[in-house]
Design goal:
It is built from two helices and 17 strands. By secondary structure, it is mostly beta strands. It folds into two domains: about 140 residues, no CATH class; about 150 residues, no CATH class.
């Protein structure tokens, strides 16, 4: 059984920044397990959604409805849960008739609440009594994705082809992009929760160019900068040659879309666990392709 009681005990746990605990609304009572069981490494905590029909969640894996919740369906939350140390005094009303040793008092902070808090604002943890200690395992990839959000990654910073450039059918078009931390990488940031800190590093591993004429070119680097001495040769790393004009396109221009795949590598600080995932960002430009007219 798990029950949370209104309480004003000041938390001393460093992970919660000594914020004051406050009760949530009646529809926010947490339930562990049951309908919200899943594969996340976070402890799964359910919150009741009174507006949703369905079967109520189970408590500590046992059957039965949640008191006062009727048939409302629980929705999953991923939360960090910590046992208060020291525990509140035995006479504190937070125990609700229980005694120290008969379960314990815990506090929780949910990831959604932490990410949604205004910059610099304290996240207010919630205090509850539980018969058993909820399992606490932070999902490092979830934290790595939070770190990526801090990087403000964007689509490629397209230098060529230029919207104002002059391009013609049959002449090689060279594609390249500027390299910066937010448009190409590398870029690093960290995120923490429940005493775990993950550092993520992101860098573009490839750019897929949709040229607007039905062709797609995949480039594994930023491209080669064109200089006049190269003449009419093809780009050695990232290029395309149009075979028809853009006259029939909207605005008489092709829409060129550059899609960057960012490879993100993360590692738990001070530990060996690491992993990798990808993110995608896009940029576009408009390109007019003409043709040489022969005058006789």
């Amino acid at each position: 059984m798990l029950k949370r009681i209104p309480h004003t005990f000041l938390l001393s746990a460093a992970v919660f920044s000594a914020a004051a605990a406050t009760p949530a609304a009646a529809a926010d009572d947490p339930v562990i397990g049951g309908d919200c069981a899943g594969t996340s490494k976070f402890v799964t905590v359910c919150r009741q959604d009174p507006g949703s029909p369905g079967t109520s969640g189970k408590q500590d894996g046992s059957s039965g409805k949640i008191p006062g919740k009727g048939k409302s369906k629980p929705s999953p939350q991923t939360c960090a849960v910590e046992r208060l140390d020291p525990q509140p005094p035995a006479k504190d009303p937070i125990w609700d008739g229980h005694t120290p040793g008969d379960g314990a008092i815990y506090s929780r902070v949910c990831l959604r609440d932490a990410l949604g808090a205004a910059a610099g604002a304290n996240v207010v943890p919630q205090v509850f009594w539980a018969a058993q200690a909820p399992a606490v395992n932070v999902d490092p990839e979830q934290l790595a994705r939070e770190a990526v959000d801090k990087m403000l990654l964007t689509g490629p910073d397209i230098v060529s082809p230029r919207a104002a450039g002059n391009y013609i059918v049959g002449m090689p078009t060279w594609m390249w992009v500027n390299e910066s931390p937010t448009t190409y990488g590398p870029n690093s940031a960290s995120a923490s929760l429940a005493g775990v800190t993950v550092t993520a590093t992101a860098k573009v591993s490839k750019i897929d160019w949709k040229m607007g004429d039905g062709s797609t070119v995949t480039c594994n680097g930023p491209g080669t900068v064109y200089v006049a001495s190269y003449g009419k040769q093809d780009s050695p790393t990232c290029g395309h040659t149009y075979t028809r004009t853009s006259a029939g396109q909207p605005g008489a221009k092709y829409t060129v879309t550059a899609t960057a795949t960012w490879t993100v590598e993360w590692q738990i600080n001070g530990q060996g666990e690491a992993g990798q995932f990808t993110e995608v960002r896009q940029s576009q430009t408009q390109l007019a392709i003409g043709e040489v007219q022969v005058v006789r």
